[in-house]
Amino acid sequence: MRALRFQGVNWQKSANRDAHHTEKFSSQELIVRRGQPFEIAIAWNRNITPEEHLDFVVSTGPSSSESAKTKATFPISTGSTGGGWKALLKSKEGNVLTVIISSPVSAPIGWYTLNIQVTSPSSSEGMYTANLGVFVLLFNPWMQGDDVFMSNEAERREFVEEDSGAIFVGSANRINMVGWNFGQYEEDILKISLTVLDKSLNFRRDAATDVARRNDPKYITRVLSAMINGNDDYGVLLGNWSGNYSGGRDPRNWNGSVEILKTWETSGFRPVQFGQCWVFAGVLNTVMRCLGIPARVVTNFNSAHDTDRNLTVDVYYDPMGNPLQKGSDSVWNFHVWNEAWFMRNDLGPIFNGWQVLDATPQERSQGVYQCGPASVNAIREGDVDLNFDMPFIFAEVNADRITWIYNSSNGSQKQNGVDTHSIGQFISTKAVGSYSRMDVTEKYKYPEGSSEERQVQQRAMKKLKPSASITPTSAESEEGEGSSPSISGRFKVNGVLEVGQEVNLILLLKNQSQDRKTVAVHMTAWTIVYNGTLVHEVWKDSAIISLESEEEVQHPVKISYGQYEKYLKADNMIRTTAICKLADEDEVVVERDLVLDNPALILEVLDQAQVQKPLNVQMIFSNPLNEPVKDCVLMVEGSGLLRGNLKIDVPSLRPKEQSKVRFEILPTRSGTKQLLADFSCNKFPAIKAMLSIDVAE
Fold this sequence. Notes:
Layout: E1 6-10, H1 13-19, E2 30-33, E3 38-44, E4 53-59, E5 71-77, E6 86-93, E7 96-102, E8 110-119, E9 127-138, H2 153-161, E10 164-171, E11 174-181, H3 189-198, H4 201-205, H5 207-212, H6 217-227, E12 237-239, H7 258-266, E13 272-275, H8 277-291, E14 295-305, E15 312-317, E16 323-324, E17 330-342, E18 353-357, E19 374-375, H9 376-381, H10 390-398, E20 400-407, E21 412-419, E22 425-430, E23 437-439, H11 441-444, H12 451-464, H13 475-478, E24 487-493, E25 503-511, E26 517-528, E27 534-547, E28 552-559, H14 561-564, E29 573-581, E30 588-595, E31 601-605, E32 615-622, E33 632-637, E34 646-650, E35 658-665, E36 671-680, E37 687-695
Parallel strand pairs: 2-9, 5-6, 12-13, 15-20
Antiparallel strand pairs: 1-3, 3-7, 4-5, 4-8, 6-7, 8-9, 10-11, 14-17, 14-22, 15-16, 17-18, 18-19, 20-21, 22-23, 24-25, 25-28, 26-27, 26-29, 29-30, 31-32, 32-35, 33-34, 33-36, 36-37
GO molecular function, one term: protein-glutamine gamma-glutamyltransferase activity
Pfam families: Transglut_C, Transglut_core, Transglut_N
EC number: 2.3.2.13
């Protein structure tokens, strides 16, 4: 009888990918999810005899072993057995075997090689091994028993399958939304996402152990939080908050993750320049969704960066109203991180669910720039002693903001006020199934000023500094710290805030006493980057203002376009400050961060969208300035709408001129797809637009 030889395998990709919710991936390999059976048909050169014994061998990673559960040998059986890898004979037709293979729900994810071994007592050649090929195993949010299981179908669709989304940016008093193309199904993105794991320090130090631990979403997400930034390793993105982005791309110009991940791979795994927090979060979201971990992007407004674990951030001004970059603490107008959904078997069931992960390199953790996973439930309860990086994340949403006046002439500094409410506001994420903002602040903390909030703060402080005496910085405890100021102040916006227009504000000062007051006011305005980095002073003024008993005075502030034009960054942010000094009283600090609106960028489709049918789209942009704009570039992308990125050089525009640019895209998938555009020129570094397009089959 002829020796038994393997002739071919039918991976039944279409049926398997549909069953495993992986049909949208562009990759040609079989992509399946753990814990769920898949079928393959194996053809031989002749019928198999009863004495011939077949065993499958699956393995993943280098130095795979059965003890590490990165390798398994299992026979074809006719009945169900155990919880490990197994193969069930479905049918035998001639020389073709159809087999159902099942993986354990706790198997490591990644590339697998599948071999089959044939042994026959009568054969002189002993064992014959055939290589069937490779497949990819992913996490399975559809499978109860998988640590990433998510029971709600609408949430699964949003947090695993959706390949575009929105990220909230701006400031607490001006929340804006930008679109982001996650693009996890695009060509090569799955391969690159798995390569991210293989480039990690953990893999390079001990590949066998690293691969064995890839069964655990806790482990994988922590590794990814380190790998998306390029600070310690062959990470994906280099951060830059200087305001100078020469040598790379202004972080505001990215529309999505696909180009970043592909650039990282094609450059030989050198970090891509440049990223800021929402870019790190967008890329991390792509990789987590790609691997099957439910994930979303979350924005925290007025986010504290507390470097010394004391749950306070110190903010400094000089007596003339200039903000100072003194000390290592800071408050970011907004900060963007991720949440991933999985069980915390290391902590207990009450800590299951959403976990914070942050790929933005801010502080080292265990020697590496990585952050999380930290249970959102634990953050809410002040359990800062639990893994991972809880004190830092707790402070981001809960720290007290202490204002100081620093006098450089004599080196003195004076505490001006404690704000217990402003940090951690409007914590936001995209709503399920729509592009509206969902506020998740109450998931992170109890209502500001409530007794529960104060108890949590005390609990956290006690765990961080067990020997310290705890005095909560609540309204009640501040009353004894000196009399409240006799005046109050705030900046009020007067009119519109638009790039290219004069900024008009009113400083409202109110005398809260029965006595006449004379106030010396020193005011400044600085352009800033969203994380508080100062760029340039653009305006300053001083005034002496007299206030009668309980009088309110309106003092106008005007900042011309000519004053701020050269120094405004793509964030479009200006920080205004007034230091109000009264005789024999503490200064009153009034501040407001302004976010200026860009002119509108309009996208419109000109035909009915249909799969594989060219679609014309038009961009409309009007130059609002009294001067020309040049070096105009339009960047367009959208998963399922066009391959890669479309870059269009747009002719210069004269003052007040309107530009219309038509371009063609080719939709490849049906359903509602998002087209994202970024328009940049010498006067407007990053104008965004997003358009939903319904694509018919």
